Amino acid sequence: MVRRIDLIPSSVKLILALAYDLLSLSLAFYFSYIIRLGFDSVEISRHENLAFISVVGTTLALFYAFDVYNSVVRFFNAKAFLKIQLLLIAASIIFYLTSFFADAFVPRSVPIIFLVIASFQIAGARALVSLIAKKSWFDEREGVVIYGASSAGRQLVHALSQGNKYQPLAFLDEKKRYVGRRVLGLKIYSPLHITQLVKKHGQFKVLIAIPKVDPIRLKQIVAHIEPHALELLIVPGMSDIVSGKRTIDELREVSVDELLGRKPVQPIAELLSANITDKIVMVSGAGGSIGKELCRQIVLNKPKELILLDVSEALLYEIHQELSEILSESSNNLHVEPLIGNVQNGMLMRHIFSKHNVQTIYHAAAYKHVPMVENNVIAGVTNNVLGTYEIAQAAIYCQVETFVLISTDKAVRPTNVMGATKRLAELVLQGFAKKDHNTRFVMVRFGNVLGSSGSVVPLFKKQIKRGGPITITHPDIIRYFMTIPEAAQLVIQAGAMGTGGDVFVLDMGNPVKIVDLAYKMTHLMGLTIKDENTPNGDIEIHYSGLRPGEKLYEELLIGNNAEKTQHQRILTANERSLHYSAVDVIIEQLKEAMREEDEAKIRELLIAAPLDYQPAENSVRKIKANDNICSKVA
Question: Which residue among 141, 151, 302, 549 is least enclosed by CB atoms within 10 Å?
Answer without folding.
Answer: 151
